[in-house]
Amino acid sequence: MTSRPHVPPDHLSWKVWAAVAVGGFTGTEVRYLLGVVFPEPPGAYPWTTLAINVAGSLLLGWLTASWAAGARTPRWLQAGLGPGLIGSFTTFSAVALATLAEPALLVPYLGLSLVLGLAAAAAGIALARRTAA
Q1: For 76-131, what is each residue's pLDDT tens digit?
Q2: 90 annotated among ligand-binding-site residues
């Protein structure tokens, strides 16, 4: 009887881990750059954070629906773009910090973030379905 070498599941391969790390680094740096270019003064409405999170929701909706429709994208690239790039680009911690720093924003900002984020994700899904057809 011959033994086969252990092959880790695709989601545990070094390519997946490396892609998530590179995507995470890139998403974080892009988010930081946008914060520098479009700063949010203390007490002001956090439009930059909102725009980043809505744009990320749109992109993630589009990518996810494209992959679900059968787009032939390697698993390592899906992980690098989804949890890596977009996951680090969009962060709920930035929303939480903005609302804690300015309590008057708590309900309107969280509500707007949720509504626009869901609408953007739905738009991304619809766009992917339309372009796949």
Answers
A1: 999 999 999 999 999 888 788 877 878 888 888 889 999 999 999 999 999 999 98
A2: yes
Residues 35, 94: contact at Cβ < 8 Å? Answer: no
- Cα-based angle 115, 119, 120 (whole degrees, multiple of 5): 115
Has 87 been labeled as part of a binding site? Answer: yes
Q: What is the pTM of this model?
A: 0.84
